[in-house]
Amino acid sequence: MQGKEERIRKKWYYQLLLSYLPVFFIATSIIVIISFVGVRLTIGNEAKRVNEVATTQMLKNIDDALRSIDHLILKEILNNVAFDKFFDLSKETDKYLDSLEMSDRIRNIIHATPLIDSLYLYRFRDQIVLTRDERIAIEQFQDKDFLAKLLQNQQQSKWSDLREVTETNVVTNETISRKVLTLTSKVPTISGELGLIVVNVRPYAIQSMIDQMANSSYSLLDFVDKNNTTIASVRDAALPQEDRLANQTHSFTIRSSYTGWSLHSSINNSEVYGFSSAIYYGYFAFWIAAIAAGAYWIYLITRRNYKPVEALMGRLEKYKSEKSLQLLGSDKRGEFDYIEHALDHLIDRFDYQQRHVEEHVKLRQRKLLLDLLEGNFVDRNDEIVKNMLEEQGQACVIVVEIDAYEHFVELYNKHDQYLLRFVVENVCYEVSQEHGIQVWAEWVEGHQLAVLFQSRESASQVEATSRKLSQWVQDNLDFTVTIGIGSPAKSMGEVSGSYERALAAIKMKFKFGRNRVIRFNDLPETEEELIVQPKVLKMIAQSFRQGDTEWPRKLLDFVNQTTEAHAAKENVQHILQLLLFSMDREMSEVSSELRAIWKKRLLRLNEGLDTHETEIELSQFYCSELNEAYEDIKQHKDEKSHTALMHRIKEHIDKEYIDPDLTLARLGEVFQINSSYLSRTFKEEIGMNVTDYIVVSRMEKAKQLLKDTQEAVQDISVQVGYTYTMSFIRVFKKTTGLTPGEYRRLSAEA
């Protein structure tokens, strides 16, 4: 028996041990493979970057060396007298001595510049070529074909592609052919009308430069001209041609913007990745050692950690032998029968707990309430639904909203907020039970509690319960609530509609105020859209800017008109925003000091649009802020002498508008100030220039006389300062869009 138990315990031990090792081997193998691939990719990318940088720098060095030759020739053209004597006939003293001096200079340039193979000058006027050894006509010059082709084609680049030249030594009479690269410079450098300077450069000198800068073991280079002819190259001579091509990778080509030649480069794989292979073998050996050490460590840890499991298995075997008869009725059944019976017992207990949770009425009622409010599908055969709609009669939804919720959030921390919401919900249940009403409630928002009432009695009980709840909150808590009552719901499908009407009733808190109980039938049948003419807003804004004493009355009339209309909160906010926009546009033309005062108030006004819940609070806030802004601006204006003067002039115009000679110049004489200064300052303070204000004052008085009296137009024109009636009629129509007679008729009809 003990031998069997020992085998069982060993079996569990080996299963535990073997469950770790495969995971360990797979995980370490994946890590090693990823690391190797990552190292290889990193080395390759870095080698590619280094190759591109080195190739670019190499081509730059070659270009710099060739440019130095170009600059040398240019310097000689500009500064050397011998060049001038050869090319410019007016400066020539003795053609033989000058040619000899020029040949010496050519030899010095060739000896001083290792890259230069040969140099000669070609003069257009007599087609003479001067080399370092001789002065010869072009017909006898061996490089005449190149010059002819050059003069015929007018090549764009200064540098030619690789070409072959033939030269005869004047001493040994030996003919030599070699490859050169040719630089051609015009004389003078801009027009080129005198001749050419031709410089031949040795390709092997460029090859020598590249050999010094490149390593054939790591990189392969090919420097070619525009015809893709090799000028210089770097190859690994130890490898055959096919092996060199196979080992190339990360090719890179760069073209010189100066010569038009290209430098092709690639990396020798065998050298670059040979290093990474060495790293790989070392890494592989380290991996084998790490796996061996890890496997041994897992063996030790498993052996140590299995000891508590082994003790537990021993106790389980002992308990099984003692309880098997009691649980199974026989000791002939195995350990799996015992485990199966224990699992069945555990499943039965779980099913019992699950049924107990599912039958928890409160949780189901809360879920059902949310579904009903949102109009989601609800099983009509559900027992709770039948009790709610059939046994309890009709339903009604109310929404309880915490007033001044922003202040509520600032006043209480999250724990206190949760506690106070719990108090409101419990009071709702208690008050409803006193009236025999069944209630289902849920906080749908942080500040809104949705309550579903069920009662056989009339809807008046719902209103009475709501008022009692509102009163209790007001008496016992530091905040108030507003309650919106929805329409009765006779069926389950009408509950969502009742909820929507309750929300609509809550929105009317803006009109009715806080701490109210608002029924759905208290709402207007249609929302009244508040429309204000732009000219009314402009008139109020101009009155504010001009410091009109009638400004507070005009603002109050506007606010009363807004308040009396049954408009939604959004509509009222929009109208107030339009007023602020119109006033801000008017104030944009005042002085910077007044504009700063206005901007400070405007910021507060914009912030107050959403912070006030009721229309009365919003209106009072706006009137107070605008009147304070008006007083601040008025006080600032009074403190400035020119502001007071402009208002005195304005008052003078209001009194003396009947004077036909009332003009800008006349006002300047009366008040003894410069007319230009008066015009500019008056517009700054009042918002319009002097002439326009005189016209406005006269037209306002004329409209009043046309509306209130039956005097002739000719008499009215004299009373408002116009000597000629036609001038008055023309200005009146330009200002109002109507003739005086049309205006009088329309005013009478209104």
Task: Describe the overall structure.
- By secondary structure, this protein is of the alpha+beta class.
- Helices cover 63% and strands 14% of the residues.
- The protein has 27 helices and 15 strands.
- α7 crosses α8, α16 crosses α18 and α18 runs antiparallel to α19.
- The N and C termini lie far apart (118 Å).
- About 2% of the residues have low confidence.
Task: Return the average pLDDT rounded to an integer.
Answer: 77
Helix content: 55-70%
Give the total of beta strands: 15
Structural class, from helix and strand content?
alpha+beta
Shape: flat
For the CA atoms, what is the radius of gyration? 52 Å
What is the topology, as strand order, of the major beta sheet? Answer: 3-2-1-6-5-4
Task: State the end-to-end CA separation.
Answer: 118 Å
Spans where pLDDT lies below 50 across 5 or more residues: 241-247, 327-332
Number of helices: 27
Percentage of β-strand residues: 5-15%
The largest sheet is: 6 strands, antiparallel
Keywords: DNA-binding, Membrane, Transcription, Transcription regulation, Transmembrane, Transmembrane helix
Transmembrane segments: 12-39, 278-299
InterPro entries: CdaR_GGDEF, GGDEF_dom, Homeodomain-like_sf, HTH_AraC, HTH_AraC-typ_CS, Tscrpt_reg_AraC-type_HTH
Protein name: Helix-turn-helix domain-containing protein
At a glance:
The chain is of the alpha+beta class and 750 residues long. It has 27 helices and 15 strands.
